[in-house]
């Protein structure tokens, strides 16, 4: 039957099914049409897609829901690409924070104007982040501010950042409870027996889960500091701060087996090929780093791990 | 991979011309992009009992359920009209269709709150918590 | 116009439907024989119908006098006439039918845990005997078979211990009660095919589809004409037949499902991890390999990830 045919590669998709926040796609918005831009993802250090709307006033994140073997019927047409994109509001501060942290170290405690800090040759659109209404108004959550004349100067403050992040975690905990999201280990499924019934989750389970979610938007160092700040009990390896899902266990295995490519021919479809450095990471690796921390260090742990 | 300096413009003026259409998320990959007799073959043969819909596609039994877009969200289909020749140029997409609910289909299994797409609908509300403004 | 009322099936011809005559009092009071036969096993179009017919053992000769014969040797009109005779004898002859829609056949045979036509046939026959046992004093059951007769006979004898089961190839020409069952089934199948109401909106559908057997040129021509590149066929066609599949393969759009050519175990594995294939095709599909690694399980459980480009 048709199924025995080889799957042909899917290239050149030109259509996307999207669920977007009304504030992102309001045709009456001032400042013209929104645009999708590539910015440095604080979680991966590589470029990710974001949306700026209302003349750069608002920032949105683009995430794709995608399962294997899915397609769409849209009206009287087939769309082969079965992705569903979510365009959701994003706090610009998460994207600005790595730049502030970097400058905090390089400027050795000097106050600086934000527009001199939020610059990235690789991702020039990052300066547009300062146009977001919330950006300048919320810098005080993560920096100390000084005003000289009409100019504002900023200096990164870890202390302020941590208490800002704590509020984020608390809001997230409330939302997790409200939506009754299973924060226990393993895949939430009626076909598996849960490690714990939903009503049995402790405040600590929620905090740890919310900490894991917020950590998707901050660097590893900051994630660790936040963990301490939340007074979550120490766990030997930072990897275990969030209980690993099945998927993670499998990908850990692949790191060990990196040399043994013959195993790729075996039935284990779960194994992933070893990751390559992106061009961005390579160029970062080449820069003379004496006296400065690489940009990547302000982003996720993932990049650093791959560099070894 | 596209250049980091590229921008994709979303033409929202096209929303007024966009058609409200039924959308179905199918549990199979259909290696085709383009017109299909969806209403004649699929919608016409779909049976609606209680919460659950049933139909078959290519001789396979499907069970489906309607999902509403989360509150404050709109469904739309974006289409790139003229793909630029080089990856240095900005791109433009327009809105060709809009929807406020969709039907997702499972292969032979009844719709269930643990279905991934249902769980994915948690995201907008969680995103609001993670990204909403924090009070002093 | 047929005496047989198929409207319960016709009101939803996508599912399996049971049609029954009233059970004659004679069959409740006396020991009975019962025949089982099927119609429309081979065709690529339309339903398969299983039929049972029953009467008191003491009136077998009266049944013989009705001259019911193997339905395959008769014309449609002759079968219709014989069914009328059976209907006239309803004081001592009863029948029941199970109409298996082509959609039921397709979805059963193609489902994840395959349900083959023999198993489907056996279960249907068993279901009908069980129905009869509920009112009829059953002593003898005669069954026509296409598979190995002995195994089937053992199976039925075990399920119905109080009943004497005889399974024979060509039973429809050997036992009048099987011939009668065969006529009921064939009349229903003829009627269902002739008056098929398409669930699909095909406009004025051409009903000149011949016998429905894959080698009938009329049937072939119809299958070519009604092939839709995306949907394949209306539910009137049995998608599990190789004739239909070959045509869809060569002229239709390729459709891939996640359970093809792999056991349930691997499919279950895939639930928790993406296939190797999806990693190889990743760049073309706009995946960012960096973002598939250590994401929080909130996102990995929901198959949510960042995009590096549209």
TrEMBL record, chain A:
Q: Where in the cell is it found?
A: Nucleus
Q: Tell me where in this chain the Rnh202 triple barrel domain is found.
A: 33-91
Q: What are the record keywords, sorted?
A: Nucleus
Tagged with keyword Repeat: no
The cross-references to InterPro entries, in alphabetical order and at most eight, read: RNase_H2_suB (IPR040456), RNase_H2_suB_wHTH (IPR019024), Rnh202_N (IPR041195)
**Pfam families linked:** RNase_H2-Ydr279, Ydr279_N
Domain Ribonuclease H2 subunit B wHTH, residue spans: 94-226
| Similarity section | Belongs to the RNase H2 subunit B family.
What is known about what this protein does? Non catalytic subunit of RNase H2, an endonuclease that specifically degrades the RNA of RNA:DNA hybrids. Participates in DNA replication, possibly by mediating the removal of lagging-strand Okazaki fragment RNA primers during DNA replication. Mediates the excision of single ribonucleotides from DNA:RNA duplexes.
- Quaternary data: The RNase H2 complex is a heterotrimer composed of the catalytic subunit RNASEH2A and the non-catalytic subunits RNASEH2B and RNASEH2C.
**Which protein, by its recorded name, is this?**
Ribonuclease H2 subunit B
Provide the species name. Answer: Tetraodon nigroviridis (Spotted green pufferfish)
Upper taxonomic lineage:
Eukaryota, Metazoa, Chordata, Craniata, Vertebrata
UniProtKB/TrEMBL annotation, chain B:
- Coiled-coil annotated spans: none
Choose any GO biological process term that the UniProt entry carries and state it: RNA catabolic process
Which branch of life, at top level? Eukaryota
Alphabetized Pfam families for the sequence: RNase_H2_suC
Signal peptide positions on this chain? none
* Gene Ontology cellular component terms for the protein in this record: ribonuclease H2 complex
Protein name (Swiss-Prot/TrEMBL): Ribonuclease H2, subunit C
UniProtKB/TrEMBL annotation, chain C:
Give yes or no: UniProt keyword Nuclease. yes
Q: What is this protein called?
A: Ribonuclease
A GO cellular component annotation here is:
ribonuclease H2 complex
Q: Does Nuclease show up as a keyword for this record?
A: yes
Reading the lineage from the top rank, the first entry is Eukaryota
Q: Which CDD domains match?
A: RNase_HII_eukaryota_like
Q: What does the record's cofactor remark say about binding?
A: Manganese or magnesium. Binds 1 divalent metal ion per monomer in the absence of substrate. May bind a second metal ion after substrate binding.
Recorded GO terms, molecular function? metal ion binding; RNA binding; RNA-DNA hybrid ribonuclease activity
RNase H type-2 domain segment(s): 31-253
Give the species.
Answer: Tetraodon nigroviridis (Spotted green pufferfish)
Q: Which UniProt keywords apply?
A: Endonuclease, Hydrolase, Metal-binding, Nuclease
* List of residues binding a divalent metal cation: 37-38, 144
The record's section on Gene3D superfamilies has: Ribonuclease H-like superfamily/Ribonuclease H, Ribonuclease hii. Domain 2
